[in-house]
Amino acid sequence: MLGVFYLKTFLYLFIMIQENETLSVRVDVTYADGKFNFSLFTGKEIQPEMLRAMLVGGVALTIKAEDGPEKQGQAMREVIDYLNNEFVSIDSFMDAKYTNPED
């Protein structure tokens, strides 16, 4: 089976998986010292592009689960705002170190 994910940040991502094969990712969140620390766990065969596609697919499902277009739009705006706050500029990830200088 060939899975195709369309994402604006990269054109098309093709992931080859076998019929009825399940790929998994686990996200753990720990709150410490006023910060949320995220840890991702997955199999060695999962490439970073695949991991992003899986996580974005999950985020899209949570947005679609919202009741109606207004709440979906609000949920999408919250996700976009969060990502904008994490990275000052999508063109230069060097900016990220200035977002949280104590890291």
Structure description:
Strand 3 (25-32) and strand 4 form a beta hairpin. The chain has helices at 48-64, 68-86, 96-99, and strands spanning 2-7, 10-16, 25-32, 35-42. The termini are far apart. It has 103 residues and is of the alpha+beta class. The protein has a two-stranded antiparallel sheet. A two-stranded antiparallel ribbon has the order 3-4. It is 39% helix and 28% strand.
Beta-strand fraction estimate: 25-35%
**Largest beta sheet: strand ordering:** 1-2
Supply the helix-strand structural class. Answer: alpha+beta
Q: Biggest β-sheet, characterized?
A: 2 strands, antiparallel
Helix content range: 25-40%
Q: SSE string, helix = H, strand = E?
A: EEEEHHH
Distance between the termini: 41 Å
What is the mean pLDDT?
75
Stretches with pLDDT under 50, minimum 5 residues: 1-15
Shape: globular
Helix count, DSSP H or I runs of 4 or more residues? 3
Rg, nearest Å: 16 Å
Number-wise, the strands total 4
For the structure shown, list the relevant keywords.
two-stranded antiparallel sheet, alpha+beta, 103 residues, globular, 4 strands, 28% strand, disordered N terminus
SSE blueprint and pairings:
Blueprint (H helix, E strand, L loop, with lengths): L1 E6 L2 E7 L8 E8 L2 E8 L5 H17 L3 H19 L9 H4 L4
Antiparallel strand pairs: 1-2, 3-4
Helix pairs in contact: 1-2
